[in-house]
């Protein structure tokens, strides 16, 4: 059983989705039961995996017992398991919101949700970059389905645009994979790390061109400036529960970039990303200032949080990278909270929807307003939620001396202020400028959505409390990325068959 | 043969990108198909081109075709086919529900209850 642990996060959602497609087309109750059972199993497996790798163990699962690099390997180390655990937790919590109406808005919500989770788990666990492509596609196909779930004109036109961007991204992905394969002759991250130093000088150009092209694809998925234009419209119009899960998708791009560039290519650091991170922060913060709806605002807030994350990832020291990864977890939760909140407001206000304008009073205004206040605190990075700890830890790990460090400080602090302004503006318009009485027949926000918000805030508070061990854990995970020797040894150690 | 392949892949890619830039549903679907053909050919040549070589290694043979890109290209074909089908279905729905034939970043409009 333990030997098969790393494959279970991919298998469980795959099997439950297949069962759901076969059995639960008409029966949403059965689908819900299966979805929650699957979520519980995923969390259980993720916790077992966490217990197995927390001391630095690296689990390698070779499918069909084919030797590396010919077979497909799944690798569970500190970083990937932490992200699997995050995915399992977020997926389970968001199911609560799906109960409120979303899973009845169209057929196949639950199977799509499970396939989405399967793609994310696979992308985190895979040990080679062709399977990364396959899992990316699983993730994207499910996300197209979830994005148009429930239909509607604005949602469809935005989803078309998202889909075309990602299809072009997929073709780039394949071009890049073939270039790297052509030069290095392998698709496995660990095997690539061994082969990169031995690639002859005549092929180095091809290798690096392919490698950089692959990084561009990952930056597109992560929505880093100048590749961020697709995100606000697509996520802002998606169903709230799907958008909240998509808060995780851009993190998959960041993770894949780390795994490929640091472990596979052995670049050692990604300092070239620092200016892009600044611009991403700025684009996100300015977008929040100008956002016309809460959904789009949540999208721009996610872009800003990606900026903070990449300020961390651009460092070559483990504490800085570790703080960035700690912030990654926070920003996923904060982004999800904002998307869920925008969805609840959209449902509560008949006429104005989630537009950032005052309007008629609505049921549950105080509750949603309080939720927005906390979500804004999380997005800006104020105490007592974990964004504050994350930003402090990040800034403390960046030396102010030297132009780049000072600029990073300035960008993080100034954009935090801009985010504060933008979120205050949106919140006071939507929640304070409401006039008159709420319609008598109006119902308050769905209990499921409120429960999701409460759980997300509790998680962010707990994440702030657990900051010390969490930062230590991610610093070790970051160290393993910067010096991938142990990873390479564990994957290829069983003897690379040549 | 390398030259021929390079020209072919280049022409397909250029045509595909041009069609994608037209931002109308039908040209974009065609453009993405052409792009995926170009990708498939490109993946295929990643294992280097060889004439008259056995498809996979056998005893006493030193020159053989690389089987891996062939497996990769099969996966890529299946995925791009599925994606194109999905895109067409989505395009038809967008045409009927939104009356929209352009694929573009739409002007950000206020979300209304039709979104629900």
Give me some keywords for this one:
heterodimer; A: 498 residues; mainly alpha; two-stranded antiparallel ribbon; 20 helices; globular; B: 116 residues; Helix Hairpins; disordered C terminus
Describe the model.
The complex is a heterodimer of chains A (about 500) and B (about 120). By secondary structure, chain A is an all-alpha fold. Chain A has a domain at about 270-465. Chain A has 20 helices and 2 strands. A two-stranded antiparallel sheet of chain A has the order 1-2. The longest helix of chain A is centred in the middle third of the chain and has 32 residues, at about 155-185. Chain A is globular. Chain B has a single domain (about 1-50, about 65-105), classed as Helix Hairpins, CATH 1.10.287.3510. Chain B is elongated. Mean pLDDT of chain B is about 80; it is low at about 110-115. Chain B is mostly helical and about 120 residues long. Classes of the chains: A mainly alpha (about 500), B mainly alpha (about 120). At the A-B interface, helix 5, helix 6 and helix 9 of A face helix 2 and helix 3 of B.
Can you summarize this structure?
The complex is a heterodimer of chains A (498) and B (116). By secondary structure, chain A is an all-alpha fold.
């Amino acid at each position: 059983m333990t030997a098969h642990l790393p494959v279970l996060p991919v298998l469980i959602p795959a099997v439950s989705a297949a069962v759901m497609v076969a059995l639960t087309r008409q029966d949403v109750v059965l689908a819900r039961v299966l979805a929650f059972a699957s979520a519980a199993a995923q969390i259980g497996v993720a916790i077992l995996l966490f217990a197995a790798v927390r001391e630095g163990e690296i689990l390698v699962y070779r499918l069909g017992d084919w030797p590396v690099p010919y077979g497909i390997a799944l690798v569970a180390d500190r970083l990937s398991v932490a992200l699997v655990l995050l995915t399992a937790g977020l997926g389970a919590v968001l199911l609560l919101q799906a109960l409120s109406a979303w899973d009845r808005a169209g057929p196949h919500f639950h199977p799509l949700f499970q396939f989405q989770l399967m793609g994310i788990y696979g992308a985190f666990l895979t040990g080679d970059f062709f399977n990364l492509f396959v899992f990316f596609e699983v993730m994207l196909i499910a996300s197209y389905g979830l994005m148009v779930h429930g239909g509607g004109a604005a949602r469809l036109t935005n989803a078309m645009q998202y889909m075309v961007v990602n299809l072009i991204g997929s073709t780039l992905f394949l071009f890049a994979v073939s270039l790297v394969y052509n030069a290095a002759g392998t698709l496995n991250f660990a095997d690539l790390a061994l082969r990169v130093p031995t690639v002859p000088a005549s092929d180095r150009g091809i290798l690096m061109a392919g490698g950089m092209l692959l990084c561009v694809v990952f930056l597109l998925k992560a929505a880093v400036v100048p590749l961020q234009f697709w995100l606000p419209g697509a996520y802002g119009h998606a169903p709230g529960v799907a958008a909240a899960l998509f808060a995780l998708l851009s993190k998959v791009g960041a993770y894949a970039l780390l795994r490929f560039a640091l472990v596979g290519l052995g670049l050692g650091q990604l300092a070239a990303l620092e200016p892009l991170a600044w611009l991403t922060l700025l684009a996100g913060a300015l977008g929040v200032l100008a956002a016309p709806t809460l959904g789009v605002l949540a999208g721009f807030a996610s872009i800003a949080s990606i900026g903070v994350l990449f300020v961390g990832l651009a460092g070559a020291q483990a504490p800085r990278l570790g703080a960035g990864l700690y912030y990654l977890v926070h920003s996923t939760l904060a982004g999800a909270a904002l998307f869920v909140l925008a969805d609840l407001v959209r449902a509560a206000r008949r006429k104005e929807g989630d537009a950032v304008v005052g309007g008629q009073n609505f049921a549950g205004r105080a509750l949603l307003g309080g939720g927005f206040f906390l979500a804004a605190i999380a997005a800006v990075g104020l105490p007592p939620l974990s964004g504050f700890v994350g930003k402090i830890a990040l800034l403390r790990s960046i030396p102010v001396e030297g132009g780049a460090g000072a600029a990073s400080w300035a960008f993080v602090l100034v954009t935090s202020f801009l985010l504060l302004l933008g979120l205050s503006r949106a919140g006071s318009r939507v929640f304070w400028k409401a006039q008159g009485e709420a319609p008598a027949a109006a119902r308050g926000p769905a209990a499921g959505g409120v429960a999701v918000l409460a759980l997300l805030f509790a998680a962010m508070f707990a994440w702030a409390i657990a900051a010390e061990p969490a930062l230590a854990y991610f610093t070790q995970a970051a160290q393993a990325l910067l010096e991938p020797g142990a990873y390479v040894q564990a994957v290829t150690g069983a003897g690379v068959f040549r | 043969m390398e030259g021929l392949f390079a020209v072919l892949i280049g022409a397909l890619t250029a045509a595909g990108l041009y069609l994608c830039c037209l931002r109308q549903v039908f040209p974009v679907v065609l453009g993405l198909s052409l792009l995926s053909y170009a990708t498939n050919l490109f993946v295929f040549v990643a294992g280097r081109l060889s004439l008259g070589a056995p498809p996979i290694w056998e005893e006493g043979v030193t020159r053989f075709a690389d089987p891996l890109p062939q497996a990769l290209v099969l996966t890529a074909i299946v995925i791009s086919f599925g994606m194109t089908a999905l895109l067409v279905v989505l395009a038809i729905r967008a045409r009927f529900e939104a009356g929209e034939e352009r694929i573009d970043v739409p002007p950000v409009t206020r979300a209304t209850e039709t979104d629900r």
